[in-house]
Amino acid sequence: MGFMQNNKNNSRHRPRHRNKNNARKSGQKRFSKKPLSGGKIIQKYDNLLEQHLQARRKYFEMFHRASDGNLRKLKKIFDESLENLRRFEEKLEDWQRETLEKKINAYKLDTIFSEAHNTGLQGEAPPNGPFKNPHITQEQLEREDFSRDTQESVGTMDDYLKYKDSRI
Length: 168
Hints:
- With 168 residues, the protein is mainly alpha-helical.
- The chain is 48% helix and 0% strand.
- α1 packs antiparallel against α2 (68-91).
- The longest helix is centred in the N-terminal third of the chain and has 24 residues, at 38-61.
- The radius of gyration is 34 Å and the shape is elongated.
- The relative contact order is 0.06.
């Protein structure tokens, strides 16, 4: 019974007193007014990027297997992680943004092929507009009557329909 006694002098169960001015409500975070240093910026960015990559991986891995509710939840987490990453980038000061740019674009561009072939660093813009079907020849486009078509065909339409029905 000695172990179970309620002993006010027991050092293991000391009551904790908090200063009322410093007491925090649950879920409330402390934010320092001091800007992040270069190393902390990179660490925070890497953390947010890793969260986003994990959310993206889970969303796309489960896309065809998850129920509608789970898929909505995964999509919400994916969108929020991207929003957190973009919000972090927007709030950076100029010197912090430069530090992050040095980390992200640390390697120079691979321009060996472009320089060897004198193509320049920017490629051509993709063409816009309707595209012609590459499987139809010009001869087929000009004809409306295919009775004189030169492709070989053996059998009648009834033979084809019988063959088609037998395969199903």
